[in-house]
Write a structure and sequence with these properties.
This protein has helices spanning 2-19, 61-70, and strands at residues 33-41, 44-46, 54-60, 87-91, 94-99, 103-111, 117-118. With 123 residues, it is of the alpha+beta class. It has one domain (31-118).
Length: 123
């Protein structure tokens, strides 16, 4: 009975914490993402083959902004567009960009044959 009472008290607290922007450990929906299975390299994609399959994932919006803010600082000297105010950040095989006209976008990927991280995008 005490366990049920404790759970009844914690669930509304967790929901209120999520609304207030506090971390609750609950998964959040990823509503603005796309993926591609391909072969070759991120900058030269081809149809997947039996011996070469990679997964590229592109994430936009609020999720991309959270990732971008988590992997700072900005990378200096990398320019992928002519847009003024472009910013790039990278950690390992994850890289993100911010463009004032397009917002936040992050790329990550995996080699599906080995499970190893792989660049999910390129300029």
């Amino acid at each position: 009975m005490k366990t049920l009472l404790a759970m009844a008290l914690l669930v509304p607290s967790a929901l209120n914490a999520e609304e207030a922007g506090e971390w609750t450990g609950a998964n959040r929906p990823l509503t603005s993402a796309s993926y591609l299975i391909y072969s070759g390299e991120a900058g030269n994609r081809k149809p997947p083959t039996n011996s070469d399959k990679k997964l590229a994932i592109a994430i936009r919006g609020q999720a991309a902004r959270q990732i971008f803010e988590s992997i700072g600082p900005d990378v200096k000297g990398v320019i992928c567009s002519a847009e003024e105010g472009e910013r790039m950040r990278s950690k390992g095989e994850i890289w993100c960009s911010y463009m004032p006209g397009d917002g936040y976008m992050c790329f990550l990927g995996f080699d599906l044959r080995t499970g190893q991280p792989h660049p999910g995008g390129s300029c």
